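Please fill in the sequence for the structure shown.

STRUCTURE ENCODING:
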């Protein structure tokens, strides 16, 4: 990994002892950290400074972690690690639905915390390097309906020129489906493509990512034009796709 001193981390938790613990552990690992207690302070920090990763407690008081994650993801692709309640599967699902890149249950092992932070930043830095290395390269697209999926920069662009932020998992799943238009793909086939991209992959992950993609792609997510549900089997990409270079 690159110099960790160049990878600042923002910690958002309303429990002072948790903020201090996370900050101490990650600073010992070489990461500069800023710790705040609420969403308002977090938004001010995000507006004033560039962070490589954000850690958010799902159950913040006031503006909770759910709303804060939504706001951050709407304007940034910065990796988000959500802290969730012990053993609560619904919290983990909610974290993924909000476009978090990973989650960690409280109480957590500090070695696992460091390992998950390291893994998220490795993936993020690798994606940044890939984008930087192709700035002068010829762009490669998958074109469908009102959208262009830029395979070179890993970005989704609308016909009006608007860029839509996709997480690593969302991009990988959309690319997999779009490369196999009008073909039914099982959850297991789609899970295979996601392993190594999503930190922890399980069957429900596919449904969560599909829901998030529909919200970004579709005029009416409840009556999807692009990604269709094939009941009892999986999903299919219903639109014709052109491969452009």
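FILLED IN BY: designer on duty
SEQUENCE:
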């Amino acid at each position: 990994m690159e110099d960790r001193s160049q990878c600042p981390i923002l910690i958002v938790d309303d429990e002072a002892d948790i903020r201090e613990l996370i900050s101490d552990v990650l600073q010992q690992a070489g990461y500069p950290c800023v710790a705040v207690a609420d969403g308002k302070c977090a938004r001010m920090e995000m507006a004033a400074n560039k962070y490589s990763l954000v850690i958010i407690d799902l159950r913040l008081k006031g503006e909770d972690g759910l709303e804060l994650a939504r706001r951050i993801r709407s304007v940034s692709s910065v990796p988000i690690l959500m802290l969730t309640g012990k053993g609560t599967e619904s919290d983990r699902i909610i974290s993924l639905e909000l476009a978090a890149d990973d989650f960690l249950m409280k109480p957590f092992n500090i070695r696992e915390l460091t390992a998950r932070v390291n893994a998220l930043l490795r993936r993020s830095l690798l994606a940044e390097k890939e984008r930087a290395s192709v700035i002068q390269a010829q762009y490669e697209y998958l074109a469908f309906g009102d959208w262009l999926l830029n395979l070179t920069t890993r970005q989704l662009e609308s016909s009006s020129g608007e860029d839509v932020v996709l997480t690593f998992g969302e991009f990988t799943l959309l690319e997999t489906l779009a490369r196999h238009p009008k073909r039914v793909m099982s959850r297991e086939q789609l899970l295979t493509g996601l392993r190594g991209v999503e930190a922890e992959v399980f069957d429900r992950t596919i449904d969560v990512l599909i829901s998030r993609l529909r919200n970004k792609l579709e005029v009416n997510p409840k009556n999807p034009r692009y990604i269709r549900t094939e009941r009892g089997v999986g999903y299919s990409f219903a639109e014709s796709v052109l491969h452009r270079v």
